[in-house]
Amino acid sequence: MAADEQRGLVFPTDDEGRRSTSVVGRGVVADALRDTDPTGARAASGATGWRTDYLVHFRRLVEAGLVSPDAAVSIARQGLASLHDRMRVLDEAGEEHPLREWPAGPRGGDELEQREVVGRGAPVTELVLPYHGDRLRGDEIRRRIDDWAEHGVVEPTVAEAIGKVLANPNWLRLQGHTVAVLGAGAEMGPLPSLMRWGARVAAVDLDRPAIWERVLRLANEGAGTLVVPMQEDAAGVDLLGQVPAIARWLGEQPGTLVVGNYVYADGATNTRVSMAVDELTRRLQADRPDVALGFLATPTDVFAVPAEAVDHSTRAYDGRSVRSKTLTRPMRTLSGGRLLRRNYVAGSDPGINDSLVPQQGPNYALAKRLQRWRATVARHDGATVSMSVAPPTRTRSVVKNRALAAAYAGAHRFGVEVFEPATSNVLMAAMLVHDLHTGGGPRHDHPWQDEAYAASHGGLWRAPYAPRSALGLAALLGYGAARG
Q1: Tens-digit pLDDT profile for residues 255-266
Q2: DSSP state of 121
Q3: Tell me: the pLDDT tens digits for 68-107?
Q4: d(CA 416, CA 152)
């Protein structure tokens, strides 16, 4: 048990005194499915090897929700309720409490002070997209997105969304909003773009000098206003232990408050900090009716996808070269059909894209799924929600994993484009701007369609092969490039 698990938001202890993430994961999935898919709930509850079994059950969560919009919303509500019922807060005396009774303590209860930094730069008043060393503007961005869509790298609706931002450059400043960037130092977060565009940002991250040196530099060089929580003359707060204080501080911010979730941590801590954000979100929504939410969905998850994506993938599979088909056949035979499988059953509507990556593990999957659940519930209840599927990106957290780094290096051989952080950052920040100015984007009949709108999946949805069936080969082919 890591030292930081002795405080703040923690997994509950089991009968043997262990904080088992597998017990929680199994229980939450079973609870989420219980009303909609009782058979699936029993299967999840009885899973004996959760670290590998979770792949099947996380897919089932999506499939069960396709029965109806109500089924999808029910799964999301029940999953969130289970997490909030199960997770605990460990106070300074070592006593556990339910999340809803989070106690005020020396760190969790003190009022936060605030520092304000006003940027010295001139605001950037047009969307500029970095891409392969170029800085694309206007029609260059439109052509780039059209090319991505043609090659299956993004959904065509990305062009619709970004086109509206290009046509309304005054949107970039987000006048009248305060964007709370939770995980301000995150590589995939929107902070650099928002500072350039002149937005007002409340930055939340750990009290680590290296993080705040970078964040404050962006603020000073930018054109926006950055507000920073302070305690004992140091910037930063700990979401795992200070949700009550952070909720009070953010609740007093002016304008429409946007709670942007960009947090990330390794292993079980990722689920813990994501749950802390969700509890913070729940409290803010209870106190302020204007709260909007922002998320980035990982492309390495399970999604229902439109028939057009299935058809694109089917054409790519059927149109492979003779050489490719010749090489594929023995691989499939020797692997018992596991390698280079079709991405979909032809004609599926919707299709199920299963891009879960076993190396990322069940804690990562649960952390990202609870964010999707919160987006689904909040949107259903009338809140403005921005939840965009972000492209696979060469972030530090990815490339430090040798297997994932190698797979990303070889992904282009299987129709997947991996983005550089600078491109993903601006593209996703522009999607946030679009959603906040359009009430969360167009509303659809089913939550899966909301998730699929303007998805920048990098090609995972439209590639010829099921992603996991090509992952190992991509890693093998990309190993040399990744080492370089």
Answers
A1: 999 999 999 999
A2: S
A3: 999 999 999 999 999 999 999 998 888 899 998 987 654 4
A4: 9
What CA–CA distance (Å, rounded) separates 411 from 179? 34
Q: Yes or no: say if 259 and 178 are a contact pair by the CB < 8 Å rule.
A: no
In DSSP notation, 197-214 reads: HT-EEEEE--S-HHHHHH
pTM of the model: 0.95
Instruction: Looking at the structure, tell me whether residues 80 and 171 fall in a common domain.
Output: no
Q: Which of 372, 405, 363, 394 is nearest to 302 (CA)?
A: 372
* Residue 471 in tokens: 């992952």
81 and 153 belong to one structural domain: no
Is residue 52 in some structural domain? Answer: yes
- CA nearest 191: which of 175, 202, 177? 202
Split into its structural domains, the chain has a count of 2
pLDDT in tens, 379-413: 999 999 999 999 999 998 877 888 888 999 999 99
The answer on pLDDT for 5 being more than 70 is no
Per the CB < 8 A criterion, the answer to whether 272 and 11 are in contact is: yes
Cα gap 237→235, rounded to integer Å:
7
Q: Which structural domain, as residue segments, surrounds residue 38?
A: 3-99
Does residue 328 fall inside a structural domain?
Answer: no
- How far, in Å, CA of 142 to CA of 475, rounded? 32
Query: 316: closest CA among 146, 150, 147, 145?
Result: 150
284's tokens: 């803010």
Same domain for 63 and 145, yes or no, is no
Q: In the prediction, which pLDDT does 350 show?
A: 98
